[in-house]
Amino acid sequence: MSRAAIGLDLGGTELRAAIVSESGRVLAHAQVKTEAAAGPDAVIAQMAALARSVRAERPDLEILGVGIGAPGPLDSDTGIAIAPPTLAGWRDVPLRDRLAEALSMPVVLDNDGHAAALGEWRFGSGAGLRHFVYVTVSTGIGGGVVCDGRLVRGRRGLAGHVGHMTIVEDGPACACGNHGCWEALASGTALGHEARRAVAADPTSRLAALVGDAPATARHVTAAAREGDAASLALMAEEGRRLGIGIANLLHLYSPERIVLGGGLSSAFDLFAPAMRATIAARAMPEFRAVPVEPSALGLEVGVIGAAALVLAPDPGRGPVQPVFASASI
Amino acid sequence: MSRAAIGLDLGGTELRAAIVSESGRVLAHAQVKTEAAAGPDAVIAQMAALARSVRAERPDLEILGVGIGAPGPLDSDTGIAIAPPTLAGWRDVPLRDRLAEALSMPVVLDNDGHAAALGEWRFGSGAGLRHFVYVTVSTGIGGGVVCDGRLVRGRRGLAGHVGHMTIVEDGPACACGNHGCWEALASGTALGHEARRAVAADPTSRLAALVGDAPATARHVTAAAREGDAASLALMAEEGRRLGIGIANLLHLYSPERIVLGGGLSSAFDLFAPAMRATIAARAMPEFRAVPVEPSALGLEVGVIGAAALVLAPDPGRGPVQPVFASASI
């Protein structure tokens, strides 16, 4: 019987589940809108139901366990979601153990940045490397770091909050409470703020036409830039510059062999890459400048593949997944 | 026969050597001015001579090898000093192998930040921890990181250049070629710049009197602050604020259980600590705020103890020191 794992990618907007093979292929997939406002009981019920539904599609496989990538901060050692800002009413929820009980399956929990980094390292652009940084640029900026062949976990598994390094001392406010964080300057949300400013400054632009009456988002900027809109191309160049500042920092701090960018904004990689690369060349010390920076190979599937990788190919620092029930089955 | 190692701390100003016991005690010590302008041959000869001189003081000990902490960038895997900015004419010098040949002893090379972190972890304020960051604040800012019980090394051993993260996008120029680096804002050198500005602004201050005709340095600021000089106390508070920004970043990036500050400026720890702690409380996410930040327990000896620790207690990621000559002796 072929072996596989269930990956659950818990986001504030979407909840995704997949059956993932031992070679990192998605064999079944399902997703629903996360009931983010309904509290932990409702969301945990959604997670269990979605896991059962993908499981039902592939009864032929032996399922080794369930991996969850969830928004931080969370304590991966104890399996507790501490206080995810995008999920209302969640405070110190023992997510790992509650789902293990609901499904009678071994469950592993890690933050979505670590899980995605693990997936990209085991099955994507980081395969075969000893030192590797994965950065997800979407609503926020998160990520995970592999150094010397192991995931960098730190106290309570809280290392790698790369979006929350100050890069502009007096910069804009961040969701974390600080200001001038990389996330506050270079996330998709931050690009959306810049887009709204650009639309207000020039309501005759192609960007303004695409946006119409909706609030401007990073998606509008990408679309308008692809049509040659000058203001949007300038916004993408500024986005690349801001990303480059943070990436130069990561090179100095972790010395990876490669940095991979995923998340929604990585679909615009070609648009911001020139400015990003110029900024890295200007800011990184010579020994770090040749390190490749590339878009994710796993794309939108990185979340579920990474979550499943927590079970299929955990990093050596964590050890193998232990079944929590003798008769594991769903 | 008791066992020990020789630690060599190669700085741009001073070269220090010590015999260090297996429990991290300095048993013999010597130092000379580094012939920093004379090129690698002269300095390597100094290093060999100083190692022999401390060895001669303790012929009763079995010497396991020689550890060198040297300024980066260097490649600790191959033992090559790439381009230390404080040593004239050094470019890709195979320092480890040249000293091993000169002394007929096994030699280990690492950058001074990693070596000091290892020393503080094995024998000082980091003892017993699994996650630990050491930061040296002196002429520049360097450091080393222990995560999950191992030194974070990265590609070519170049991880942990904590002084070269941008924290102020448009900040002052840094020795590394970038601008706005933590080092350019919060090192002893940076504090010296601020002191010269303060002296020019108010030549009647106690600081100005202490400085006299010499160029103002961090040391003057510390001395005047201890005498209650208002301008110097303000400079120390600003120094603490700048240190706090970088430390909050390190908490998010590495999630240590403790951060230890060493280097010359750590002797003024009590003067900058209140502002530093207030900044950390304002900028770090709640999960990170309770992490202790403390001055080094090893003080000025951290360099030689750390260098010796490369031999006595290497991190698990490197494996034991291998003798390079069958008849190791000096």
Report what the structure shows.
The structure is a homodimer of 330-residue chains. Chain A has helices spanning 40-57, 95-103, 112-123, 182-186, 188-201, 206-211, 218-226, 230-254, 269-283, 302-312; strands at 3-10, 14-21, 26-33, 62-70, 74-75, 80-81, 107-111, 132-137, 141-147, 150-151, 258-262, 293-295. In chain A, the strands form three sheets. In chain A, strands 3-2-1-4-7 form a five-stranded mixed beta sheet. By secondary structure, the first copy, chain A, is an alpha/beta fold. In chain A, helix 9 (269-283) links the parallel strand 11 (258-262) and strand 12. Residues 322-328 of chain A have low confidence and may be disordered. In chain A, 38% of the residues lie in helices and 20% in strands. The interface between A and B is large, with 47 and 47 residues.
Primary descriptors:
homodimer, 330 residues, alpha/beta, Nucleotidyltransferase, domain 5, 5-stranded mixed β-sheet, 38% helix, globular, ROK family protein (chains A, B), ATPase_NBD (chains A, B), ROK_cs (chains A, B), ROK (chains A, B)
SSE layout and pairings?
2 copies of one chain form a homodimer.
Chain A: E1 3-10, E2 14-21, E3 26-33, H1 40-57, E4 62-70, E5 74-75, E6 80-81, H2 95-103, E7 107-111, H3 112-123, E8 132-137, E9 141-147, E10 150-151, H4 182-186, H5 188-201, H6 206-211, H7 218-226, H8 230-254, E11 258-262, H9 269-283, E12 293-295, H10 302-312
Parallel strand pairs in A: 1-4, 4-7, 8-11, 11-12
Antiparallel strand pairs in A: 1-2, 2-3, 5-6, 8-9, 9-10
Protein name (chains A, B): ROK family protein
InterPro entries (chains A, B): ATPase_NBD (IPR043129), ROK (IPR000600), ROK_cs (IPR049874)
Pfam families (chains A, B): ROK
